């Protein structure tokens, strides 16, 4: 009835990555610090220089400021005027601010000699926002990993194993999706529907559809069987992966002597002698 109104970006969300860019810029490269706001409601901060910590995740997990800097005296001066965090990790607080607003987690690109931080100023995925609302016990580390899953970004094998142990994700890599234990807390029908579409059905179900189709119509082309199964296969599969899936199902039925191909075109039931 009375929705909250909030700024697209709060002051801290803009100040933290900007001050980090100033503090960590490699000024010997004679390059500019770039701050760009895009029309699709996101901001990008870019500075030149390597990212000294092991990873962004390690900074988030350790709630204290980084002890190494490219520009020690500049950082000390910035601390004196409270431009950088002196208590706790600023990057961690940045993640927490996005979590409170149910916005996507900050995205970092540490490739080459640059550090790029992208901040979303909107709910990118309503379903994911509802997961945050309905799962308040998720840790920040869990949310960062689940955020990568919903964005279809790379997740390490160790992280994926952790998410599986916690029963937060299902599916096989690279087609990993949010698990029932996470989705069930949401009252959002679309999110639950998406889960069922991702999970799809087992191979026996698809094989039965193929057999029923050929039995009823006498024969079937590959194109007909693909059309039969395409909309029932998991949404996480690409078009090529769906094609390969149908190929594997047909090969399995053929090896078992249930169906066979004739005239190099039609699949029919294999009649026993």
Which characteristics define this entry?
3-stranded antiparallel β-sheet; 9 strands; alpha+beta; 12 helices; 4-stranded antiparallel β-sheet; 273 residues
What is the secondary structure topology, with strand pairs?
Elements: H1 11-24, E1 34-38, E2 42-48, H2 56-61, H3 72-80, H4 90-100, E3 107-109, E4 114-120, H5 126-134, H6 140-150, H7 157-165, E5 169-170, E6 177-178, H8 180-183, H9 189-199, H10 203-217, E7 220-221, H11 222-230, H12 239-255, E8 259-262, E9 266-269
Antiparallel strand pairs: 1-2, 2-4, 3-4, 5-6, 7-9, 8-9
Radius of gyration: 25 Å
Distance between the termini: 71 Å
Counted by DSSP, the helix tally is 12
Walk across the major sheet and give the strand order.
1-2-4-3
Overall spatial form: elongated
Structural class: alpha+beta
Beta-strand residue percentage: 5-15%
Helix/strand order, N-terminal first: HEEHHHEEHHHEEHHHEHHEE
Mean pLDDT: 79
């Amino acid at each position: 009835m009375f929705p909250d109104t909030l700024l697209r970006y709060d002051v801290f969300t803009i100040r933290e990555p900007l001050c980090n860019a100033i503090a960590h810029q490699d000024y010997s490269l004679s390059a500019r610090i770039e701050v760009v706001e895009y029309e699709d409601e996101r901001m990008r901060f870019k500075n030149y220089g390597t990212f000294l910590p092991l990873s962004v995740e390690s900074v988030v997990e350790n709630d204290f400021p980084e002890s190494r800097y490219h520009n020690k005296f500049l950082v000390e001066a910035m601390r004196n005027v409270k431009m950088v965090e002196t208590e706790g990790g600023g990057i961690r607080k940045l993640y927490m601010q996005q979590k409170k607003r149910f916005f996507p987690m900050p995205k970092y690109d540490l490739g080459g000699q640059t550090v790029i931080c992208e901040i979303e100023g909107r709910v990118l995925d309503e379903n994911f926002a509802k997961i945050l609302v309905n799962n308040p016990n998720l840790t920040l580390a869990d949310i960062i990993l689940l955020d990568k899953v919903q964005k279809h970004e790379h997740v390490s094998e160790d992280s994926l194993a952790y998410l599986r142990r916690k029963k937060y994700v299902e599916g096989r890599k690279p087609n990993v999706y949010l698990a029932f234990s996470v989705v069930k807390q949401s009252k959002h029908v679309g999110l639950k529907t998406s889960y069922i579409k991702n999970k799809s059905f087992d191979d026996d179900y698809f094989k039965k559809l193929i057999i029923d189709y050929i039995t009823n119509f006498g024969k079937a082309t590959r194109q007909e069987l693909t059309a039969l199964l395409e909309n029932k296969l998991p949404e996480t599969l690409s078009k090529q992966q769906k094609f390969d899936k149908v190929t594997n199902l047909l090969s399995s039925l053929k090896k078992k002597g249930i169906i066979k191909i004739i005239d190099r075109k039609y699949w029919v039931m294999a009649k026993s002698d």
